[in-house]
């Protein structure tokens, strides 16, 4: 009987690999803050659904967002202060 499940030994496509890297980056950024997904999304101005999709590897953020996540991962408090002061 044939299975519809993907072959776990099949190599990842370039797109799957990039989504996986983006998922690690999104989780790393959120982990640096210690915030829940909804709290992170509210503090840093990203849709919670997008954050969820990035963390689960369903979607890849664009280049600017990936860079934003890198900055948040490196300096979460400084980014939050900058955003607070921008209002």
From TrEMBL:
CDD domains, sorted: HTH_XRE
Gene3D superfamilies linked: lambda repressor-like DNA-binding domains
InterPro entries: Cro/C1-type_HTH, HTH-type_reg/antitoxin, Lambda_DNA-bd_dom_sf
GO molecular function terms noted in the UniProt entry: DNA binding
PANTHER family named among the record's database cross-references: ANTITOXIN MQSA, MERR FAMILY BACTERIAL REGULATORY PROTEIN
The name this protein goes by in its record: Uncharacterized protein
